[in-house]
Amino acid sequence: MESRLKLFSGNSNPDLAEMISSYLKISLGKATVSAFADGEILVRIEENVRGMDVFIMQSCCNPVNKNIMELLILIDALKRASSQRITAVIPYYGYARQDRKDQPRVPITAKLVADLITAAGADRVLTMDLHAGQIQGFFNIPVDHLYSTPIMLEHINKKMDLTDLVVVSPDAGGVERARAFAKRLKVGLAIIDKRRDAPGMAKVMNVIGDVADKDILILDDMIDTAGTICQSAEAVKANGARKVLAGCTHAVLSGPALQRLNDAPIDEIIVTDTIPLNGRDKVCKKIVLLSVAPLLGEAIKRIHEEASISSLFV
User: Fold this and answer.
1) Which helix H or strand E contains 216, and what residues bound it?
2) CA distances (Å), origin 278, targets 116, 129, 131, 270, 289
3) Pair type for strands 143-146 and 124-128
4) CA–CA distance from 101 to each of 52, 74, 97, 106, 222 (Å)?
5) What is the pTM of this model?
6) What digits encode the pLDDT tens for the residues 190-227?
């Protein structure tokens, strides 16, 4: 009997979609995802999906608005083609940093995007390393939230001597993530306390914890303009750290990020392929790329088979 599992992809991260389809031992679904002359997005599903369990792989990375619209239109097209269930597989969830009102009269865009995905017709969401875990609650449909921790742990265990390793959170907001990682490795933890003593004054980076004569892994969920991660590297170096590595799930790498990373006292930058690098690892040779395809592929397989995926939430 023909498999009822189908995997489609937008244009955000085609290489990752291909690797996931290889893991699942299925072909990517046939669909046209392009644009009309005026810039409007054209989607056409080129095969029968009636009664199928459909997964759409689409990262909401740059160009974020185009990629979100591709995702929404793909969901709508598949819903209207009578798919039985539609799961949006979103390795990188765009607008995740706009998750609360931190100033007067600003939107909560992470909630708006969740509403759009639900209104378009998605039945569930599979995502990775949300900037704020509570975004799961913005959806009124099931959300499976995976972490890149197992992939990172495997790499660190093979790569490093854990005897003198300390995991560092680059800010107070990331302490829980860094602490969980350090606990799994059975190594020490340090925190960077970043503050300004007065408006307009330079940031002061205080290191809480012992980093002298230690190997350091600075861990964050994403590297965007790389300002925080590079300042953290300089702070731990100034406090006597030996080797400095940085690790993140989402390599956003906007604006001056690559130049900053090249200039920073960081020996290696471990990232995953939730966002395509598009050759940026050639500009910054320190970047080491790990793939989340097996993790996402296994989650898709278990969701399709109605099996438990709780063992993947680590």
Assistant:
1) strand 215-223
2) 28, 21, 23, 16, 12
3) parallel
4) 39, 30, 11, 6, 21
5) 0.93
6) 999 877 665 555 576 789 999 999 999 999 999 999 99
Q: What is the pLDDT of residue 155?
A: 93
Using CA atoms, how far apart are residues 246 and 218, in angstroms rounded to an integer? 5
CA-CA-CA-CA dihedral for 250, 96, 61, 59, to nearest 10: 80
Q: Which two tokens stand for residue 86?
A: 């539609």
Residue 194 is a catalytic residue? yes
In Å, how far from its chain's centre is CA 185? 21
Q: How far apart are the first and last CA of the chain?
A: 34
Q: Which residues pair with 8 in a beta bridge?
A: 56
| Segments in 85-226 forming alpha helices (H) | 109-120, 149-159, 175-185
Quote the distance between the C-alpha of residue 138 and its chain's center: 18
Query: Cβ neighbours of residue 238 under 8 Å, at least 6 residues apart?
Result: none
Q: State how far the Cα of 24 lies from the Cα of 18, in Å rounded to an integer.
A: 10
CA–CA dist 290, 274 (Å, integer): 10
Q: How is residue 144 written in tokens?
A: 């499976």
Report the candidate in 50, 48, 44, 56 with the shortest Cα–Cα distance to residue 10: 56
- The catalytic residue among 66, 111, 194, 301 is 194
CB < 8 Å & 24+ apart, contacts of 167-171: 167/217, 167/219, 168/192, 168/207, 168/209, 168/211, 168/216, 168/217, 168/218, 168/219, 168/232, 168/236, 169/218, 169/219, 169/220, 170/194, 170/218, 170/219, 170/220, 170/228, 170/229, 170/231, 170/232, 171/228
